[in-house]
Amino acid sequence: MHMELLKGIGWFLVNVVVPLLGPIAMLPLLGLRERYRGRVKQILLRALQEGQLCWTVIAMCVAACYEASGELYSSPEDLNFNAAMRVFTITWHMLIIVCSATVVMFGAEDAEDKLIHGQSAAATTENQGAATTIMKASVVMAFVTSITFTLTHIWAD
Description:
This protein is mainly α. It contains five helices and no strands.
């Protein structure tokens, strides 16, 4: 029992916590360099504003689809609740992949607009609202995906 719990915690740390929080946790190390000292919070916020978490969300969704597809086509008689759940799980995660890719596209577009118009990370109030929306969307998708990926792993295991 204890080994299964440790195995589950290890899986969660390696597959969810480290990919989501690892890059964010590394950004404060930029403060060690004189060039970025005092700008770490701005860099961290900018990375989140541009939807960077969505890249990790996409990877977790692909892994969830892989886990859910494990025995999808095992036999023609297997068209039961389990098979329907697998199809639903794959469809759900594919939808999140499309949404995440869209958020990344909007974040890249906003970043490009700021670059073209010479705006800094502290952009106009109008653009900050859009960036905040992208940041909120990516954080919500990361949270939801971390739960659905974990549930998929538990269910498929």
